[in-house]
Amino acid sequence: MEQAQKPKQQDSVFTNTNGGNESVAWIYSFGATMMPFLGICYAHQRGLTVKVLNAVAKSPVGVYGFFALPFVTLGMEKCIYDTVQCWQGIDPNVIPADRGGFPSGGGSLPSFSLIAVQEKR
């Protein structure tokens, strides 16, 4: 008689029964993305947000400078995202065949990465 096969043990977040590290790859991108966010939260807690808004309002462009803030913050977010992608060995300018369109159109924009695409290990 055939023995009943044991169900394969489900991989946890920290281990991979196949011997690879694919199941923990998300931790690197999560951690690398959270570090700048935590810095922003700390700066906000220390009152930097109010200082930035006051500086923009008192600048030569005045309150119209507030219209630039969304573009600046989106640029910062894209810089972090592209840098993390390059760190993981993924070219942020390549659009996979199964992706495209909104909201996956970041590959059509120039890369804001701070590092070159790393070699996958």
What does this entry look like structurally?
The chain is mainly α and 121 residues long. Helix content is 41%, strand content 0%. α1 packs antiparallel against α3. It is globular, with a radius of gyration of 21 Å. About 7% of the residues have low confidence.
- The overall average pLDDT, rounded, is 78
Spans of at least 5 consecutive residues whose pLDDT stays below 50 are 9-16
Shape assignment: globular
Helix content: 40-55%
The largest pleated sheet is described as: none
Run of helices and strands: HHH
Summarize the structure.
The protein is built from three helices and no strands. The chain has helices at residues 25-45, 48-57, 69-87.
